[in-house]
Structure formats: structure tokens, C-alpha cells
Specification:
heterodimer, A: 93 residues, alpha+beta, 3 helices, B: 273 residues, alpha/beta, Rossmann fold, 13 helices, globular
Chain lengths: 93, 273
């Protein structure tokens, strides 16, 4: 009976935990390095637009491009743009 | 490429049995695969590379016959032949024991390669039982090998370590890495309380060469010092199949339902309903 109403089975929990764990292991990226990447991205993007550098979020995701033994993880950055009305056109030229 | 060449030249295959995590069944697997190959008439040399913590001699039931060991060989205290223990039960099966009183730094990868090159002249299969961990013991064990059997159990910790080991083997140029899933319990998988073999293969993404069920006969066999490969037990049959696949013969995977008690089956019906 319990199977019907049960939350995730421990088998599924184990799979989910492993998937996340292995991404971190395979990428082998320290928190310090993530911070450095973040500040560098902020530096580059702020050349072109006004962004909220303090609230940038970057993370490594499982979903990516298939290659070899496993799919390559991808790095995604969430960068809040402060001034949308600013003269973005300036940089297009 | 170099490995390929030397194998063709000598006609022998050097297989390292490894896992990263301890206690998942490397030594049991080495003993059973080695014994199974010898039972089929192959010339096999098992090497225990776990210096300081030797086990393979005990699992094989050969602990009382050790005179010289691997460290004696590399230090030149004896000839390679003198350190080999012949298993009287199976013609063609030999064991090179490890040293119990030394540590992993007593042997270097270069020295291992030399010993293996020597052994290749007289053996068709050389099986290296790797210590747990990724330190020098691991480096020694993989140095002379051209293929690997990675042993894991369907647990998060063991799979994580297996993934790391597979990464290291790939980085060291291994082209043939096969997976053995040990101590699988089909009853637990069916209840949703254990990852299935397919789950593990999906995560690790290396070819599967064996599924060994959790079988108490393995403990009995270890108590007696006689590998159970080929015996009429679930694990014995599973190991016999691993041996076939190691030799390159396609063999269907065991129906692991066998050996599950009547009551498990009955309760399984209710669980499914």
C-alpha cells in the first residue's frame, strides 16, 4: 500500500543525489573558482550594460551536450540587468 | 597503442580489478575471475598489489604457503618464479602475494611494469587486485595493466568512487573499462529500495560485464578459502558468466530471480498490486 502514497523511493533519491554529486565531482570546480568566474563575468558584461554585479548567480547544470561517457555539464549565469532603458544602442555600432 | 602492441606480441592480457571504495568486492572478484579462467584451462597469475594489507592469499586459501612476496621480487631478494604460489586445485593458476609488513611506497609503478613484463612470458592472464584508494597503490596496480574491471555496489558512495576511478583510468589511457555490479539484491530493487543494474550503468556509462547478486555463499566460500566461481550458487554462476565475458564470449545476464525465496515472491505480488 505504502507504495501508492509514498514520497520518492529511496532508489530514486539515491539516483537524484548521485547525479548532482557526480556533476560537482566531474567538474571539480571549487567555490573560490566560482567566485572568480563570477567577478570576471561581471567585469566583462558591465563593459556593455549596467548590471547588478552583486546579485549574479552562476551554477553548473547537468543538462548539457552529449560527449563521450556522459553529457557535458553546462555553466549558466543569471545576470540581473539594472538599466534596461540605458543607451544599449551605443554598443551595437 | 603501445599496450595493444605488447599484448599482441605476448598474447597475454593484463587486467586490473579496482573500485576506489574499499569493501565492495575487489579481492573476491579477482579471486573468482582468476580461478574461473584457470578452470577453463587458461594460465593465470593473480597479483595482490595491496602492500601492507594483503587479502587475496586468504580469499584463495593459500596463506600458509607464502615464502616470498611482491616486495621481495622488486627488491631482488628472490626471482619472480620463487614468489609465485601454485594453486594445486587448479593447474595453471598462480598467486603472487603482497607483503604484509611493508607499505605502498615499497614498490613503484616502474617496478610493477617490469614484473608484469616478465610474467607475460608465461601467463595468458595477469590479474591485479588493486588496493582501495587512489594513491600510490592504485598507481602501481594500473601501471602495467591494459584493461580494467571496475567493481561497485549499488550504493551512492561506491558509485561515486567508481566514477572517480573511471575518470582516472580514462585519464591514464585505458581504452577498455568494464563494470561489475556486486551485491545486487533484486528484491530490494523491486521494492524501490536499491538502484538497479540499469540505474548504475546509466550513471557510470561504461559497459557492464557482470552483475553479481548478494549471496551468502560468498561468505562461506571466503571462510573456506575456495572461490565459488562455477559452483551451483547464484554468485558462482554470475562469476562464471563474468569469466566468459572477460574472454570475449557474449553471455546473457543471469535471471537473478532464481534464489529468491518463495515468500519474497509472494510478498512481491502484494507489493506490485
Amino acid at each position: 500500500m505504502r507504495h501508492f502514497f509514498q514520497r520518492k523511493s529511496s532508489r530514486q533519491v539515491a539516483k537524484d543525489r548521485l547525479k548532482i554529486l557526480l556533476i560537482a565531482d566531474r567538474v571539480n570546480c571549487s567555490p573560490e573558482m566560482m567566485e572568480l568566474i563570477k567577478t570576471d563575468i561581471a567585469k566583462v558584461i558591465s563593459k556593455y550594460m549596467k548590471i547588478d554585479a552583486d546579485n549574479i548567480e552562476i551554477q553548473i547544470n547537468a543538462k548539457g551536450f552529449k560527449s563521450g561517457r556522459y553529457s557535458k555539464p553546462s555553466l549558466s549565469a543569471n545576470i540581473p540587468i539594472e538599466d534596461v532603458t540605458g543607451d544599449l544602442n551605443l554598443n551595437r555600432q | 597503442m603501445e599496450n595493444q602492441f605488447s599484448r599482441e606480441q605476448s598474447g597475454s592480457e593484463v587486467i586490473v580489478v579496482t573500485s576506489g571504495k574499499g569493501g565492495v568486492g575487489k579481492t573476491t572478484t579477482s579471486a573468482n575471475v582468476g580461478t574461473g579462467l584457470a578452470k577453463l584451462g587458461r594460465k593465470v597469475c593473480l597479483i595482490d598489489t595491496d602492500i601492507g594489507l594483503r587479502n587475496l592469499d586468504v580469499v584463495m586459501g593459500l596463506e600458509n604457503r607464502i615464502v616470498y612476496n611482491l616486495v621481495d621480487v622488486v627488491e631482488g631478494n628472490c626471482r619472480v618464479k620463487q614468489a609465485l604460489i601454485r594453486d594445486k586445485r587448479h593447474p595453471g593458476l598462480y598467486l603472487m602475494p603482497s607483503a604484509q609488513t611493508r607499505d605502498k611506497t615499497a614498490v613503484t609503478p616502474g617496478q610493477m611494469v617490469k614484473v608484469i613484463e616478465h610474467l607475460k612470458e608465461q601467463f595468458e592472464y595477469i590479474i591485479l587486485d588493486c588496493p582501495a584508494g587512489i594513491e600510490q597503490g592504485f598507481q602501481n596496480a594500473i601501471a602495467g595493466a591494459d584493461r580494467a574491471l571496475v567493481v561497485t555496489t549499488p550504493e551512492v558512495s561506491a558509485i561515486r568512487d567508481a566514477d572517480r576511478i573511471i575518470g582516472l583510468l580514462e585519464a591514464n589511457g585505458f581504452k577498455q573499462i568494464d563494470l561489475i555490479i556486486n551485491r545486487l539484491r533484486t528484491d530490494m530493487v523491486r521494492r524501490g529500495d536499491m538502484m538497479s543494474a540499469q540505474d548504475v550503468v546509466d550513471i557510470l556509462a561504461v559497459p557492464l560485464i557482470g552483475i553479481v547478486p548478494d549471496d551468502e555463499n560468498v561468505v562461506v566460500a571466503t571462510n573456506q578459502g575456495e572461490p565459488l566461481v562455477g559452483n551451483d550458487t547464484p554468485a558462482g554462476q554470475a562469476y562464471a558468466n563474468v569469466v566468459q565475458r572477460v574472454m570475449g564470449k557474449e553471455t546473457p545476464f543471469l535471471n537473478l530471480e532464481r534464489g529468491i525465496s518463495f515468500w519474497t515472491k509472494v510478498s512481491g505480488i502484494f507489493h506490485r498490486a
